[in-house]
Amino acid sequence: MILKLLFVGDIVGRAGRKALTDHLKGVVSHHQIDLVIANGENAAAGYGLTGPILKELFACGIDVVTSGNHIWDKKEIIPILDREHRLLRPANYPPGLPGRGTGVYETAGGIRVGVCNLEGRVFMKGLDCPFRAADLLIDELRQATSIILVDFHAEATSEKQALGYYLDGRVSAVIGTHTHVQTADEVILAGGTGFLTDVGMSGSQDAVIGNEKDAALERFLSQMPIRLEVAKNDPQLSAVVLTIDEDSGRCTQIERIQARF
Amino acid sequence: MILKLLFVGDIVGRAGRKALTDHLKGVVSHHQIDLVIANGENAAAGYGLTGPILKELFACGIDVVTSGNHIWDKKEIIPILDREHRLLRPANYPPGLPGRGTGVYETAGGIRVGVCNLEGRVFMKGLDCPFRAADLLIDELRQATSIILVDFHAEATSEKQALGYYLDGRVSAVIGTHTHVQTADEVILAGGTGFLTDVGMSGSQDAVIGNEKDAALERFLSQMPIRLEVAKNDPQLSAVVLTIDEDSGRCTQIERIQARF
Amino acid sequence: MILKLLFVGDIVGRAGRKALTDHLKGVVSHHQIDLVIANGENAAAGYGLTGPILKELFACGIDVVTSGNHIWDKKEIIPILDREHRLLRPANYPPGLPGRGTGVYETAGGIRVGVCNLEGRVFMKGLDCPFRAADLLIDELRQATSIILVDFHAEATSEKQALGYYLDGRVSAVIGTHTHVQTADEVILAGGTGFLTDVGMSGSQDAVIGNEKDAALERFLSQMPIRLEVAKNDPQLSAVVLTIDEDSGRCTQIERIQARF
Amino acid sequence: MILKLLFVGDIVGRAGRKALTDHLKGVVSHHQIDLVIANGENAAAGYGLTGPILKELFACGIDVVTSGNHIWDKKEIIPILDREHRLLRPANYPPGLPGRGTGVYETAGGIRVGVCNLEGRVFMKGLDCPFRAADLLIDELRQATSIILVDFHAEATSEKQALGYYLDGRVSAVIGTHTHVQTADEVILAGGTGFLTDVGMSGSQDAVIGNEKDAALERFLSQMPIRLEVAKNDPQLSAVVLTIDEDSGRCTQIERIQARF
Ligand SMILES: [Fe+2]
Ligand SMILES: [Fe+2]
Ligand SMILES: [Fe+2]
Ligand SMILES: [Fe+2]
Ligand SMILES: [Fe+2]
Ligand SMILES: [Fe+2]
Ligand SMILES: [Fe+2]
Ligand SMILES: [Fe+2]
């Protein structure tokens, strides 16, 4: 039997949410998706998540929300991180922080899927080693299931490809997020792990990685700390469909999606 | 009349050169390419360029070689930067350095094409502003021709997309290099500029951005300054074909290529 | 004849302002200071400057206020940057921005003193080259006076020492700011330029570079974007007294001050 | 009874070694030092350490050698890291690497002194958290002795001051290294821990943090990867003398030294 996962990249602001609410159900039905995972770190106007927006994401058909460096931007999400097990933050923050970085979820058909959220360190924060964190967490998840998706939220292509090879054969897929631009290097690695350096963001495509062009340009031109505003036009859903063999957990197909409507 | 440019991403070591020598002529003939531009910053075992390797690149059919941060790695290339006008380095290094960052080249059919090489600053070096440098250099190139390709060698997706919008309508194309992973966001912007965040590298695909997996992984795992070695297997040519209207300089088609052989 | 300049490091919040209002006049009188220059980039609760706070700084005896990366934090200072010539921001931001980076000021005795404010690039923003900016600006200032003080607001010790040597013999002093910790390497270089890597901040010393310890520690421990709060206790004035030969502009004495009260 | 420790900052090249061989014995005798600890990460021409140079350091009177990010530069030191217990490298590298980050050493009078070497993360590598590493390691060392010195090899003043407060009352001293410039903020914190943001380097003072001025300047001016060369002139020993109460482990006096000869 096969299982189909949809993984949606960073949802950026209202435009990103609109792409989801309007069209996710269609994509899910067309691809016969069993479980939807989406990175929501930019869903609240580009900066983090709130309780109502998280509900909106679940309501439109997302089963599990992952995140990244922006998860801490809105303070009100912090208590929710502890009580909502369908919301993940990168696992390799220091121990003792609110929330969790892995979870096991069940499809409607009763199949268990492990999800692991990690954050990179190159050009980013001083977190615990994502490679060693993965060793531990993947071992744990494999007690429950051999179907495991890793959202690796990272900047550098080298760090992302390295983690893909590192986990090849141990997880079903390693999918990158954070750069907001979809890469064209989808591949099934030798050990059966589906890999994509970045799935890209879901939000306005007529924009600088989801933000209004004028402010973004002004920021580069002036080097002043101009506040970025989320762009509204031309929403696009960026995602990847992973076909996985239920027994082995191996990825048998990986297909990128960039859907404009 | 239309013109077709082929722009090839960072050529990484022997594997990258082999992909070129074996297959560039076929690609050029199949796509009826008028001029071939390629980024050669990693052609010499991953680090810079030498005279003989530069000759090898020209011999296999490349007309213009651009580069990036690695151009200074092999000292022997420095005198060549001054005398070989078909070799460019990023224009926004300080004034007075060897070499040049722009050139105007002629196709076999006598059409002039301007090429401009710039380097980004986000997560990179303290260079002059690539946006303001572009203003000046594009104005100069437009005296000679309205067909202009910009190789923007940069890390951050935001900086690259920002330059694309900034130059939209002033150049035929802004194509990113440096991350070694091809992105899937090719687009013709409103003003007629073809844009792609990164064209990806030409070299071994069974590798961490062109380098051997074992050393790359060891580097991430140990945080020791392990020397990276260029990988050899599974060479791939990554490029983009730009169709350009000769009169207006506008891009009318942009097509990504990832060719394995 | 000699001239004595007092240069006060980054004034951090209310504690920093209090150290100044209470004690600057005493220091000025004790050292027979002719002109007081102070870096005010953190005067408004750690983040930038406001109009009233700028007035407060002038009122307590500061003649010229320099700044740094934090100057843009409070939007209300931006129009003031244009009209208040006693307020400087780093000169090597892009052209066209509000404000200026140099000024010539007169002591009560009618001696002209040039001040130049620059910002470093290592571990900081993508600004114009501070070395080349200095070449130009120092040449201009030297039309008016040979007594010139440079506030180099930078992180890396290497970049700061390099600028000191670079300007040796062309300015009276190069004094670093930004790290908030006074260094003990004051020296008069071979060409007569007084140099100090960092003058240190004026503010609470029972603190992490002027900020409350608990929040600062929590930030390092959690890697969450905890908001820093300016600390209140144990204010200290950090400054440097420069004795300068009026005719030659050479520094003849450099003395560090760390005054607690 | 009291104990006196001398901690010497980064020894840079031949000039640094010469300052030590010529004058360390005099300093030790003058201050009645019981144990000498020195950071040797730049002792071999600015880049790492070799076996013979390590011997030279021990021969001139150093009892324990700490290090930092440059420790891996010379491959030949790697086996020595495992067998020479008087040589430390930062403890918060990943587990399994050669060498160790702590040790307990005995003075001639039979008093045990713990030394702990850590490396910062701000503007540096992706290492394990130095704060949490310290928690663990200090607990261990305190089984053996209450006299503990921490060499915190870090760039950012904020991270260094934060670790000082974090360990206050648990160790005898936290002394910073790596910036190569001595700071003037020596203090005994409330809990009895001696603290100094950076002890400064031992090497040529007529130099850019120990390196020849011309190459260092050329590097900043050109942004090319110019090789730095260790400077030779005007050697200086930079160190700190810590007076410690044997029973409590509290620091009772902290005195900076910058000795030219
Ligand atoms: Fe994001
Ligand atoms: Fe992110
Ligand atoms: Fe590059
Ligand atoms: Fe490259
Ligand atoms: Fe400051
Ligand atoms: Fe600053
Ligand atoms: Fe060092
Ligand atoms: Fe270091």
From TrEMBL, chains A, B, C, D:
Fe cation 1 binds at D10, E41, N42, H180. InterPro entries: Metallo-depent_PP-like, YmdB-like. The active site is at H70. The keyword Metal-binding applies. It holds the Pfam family YmdB. Keywords: Hydrolase, Iron, Metal-binding. It comes from the Bacteria. Fe cation 2 binds at E41, N69, H153, H178. The keyword Amino-acid biosynthesis does not apply. SUPFAM superfamilies: Metallo-dependent phosphatases (SSF56300). GO terms for molecular function: 2',3'-cyclic-nucleotide 3'-phosphodiesterase activity; metal ion binding. Belongs to the YmdB-like family. This is TIGR00282 family metallophosphoesterase. It comes from Pelovirga terrestris.
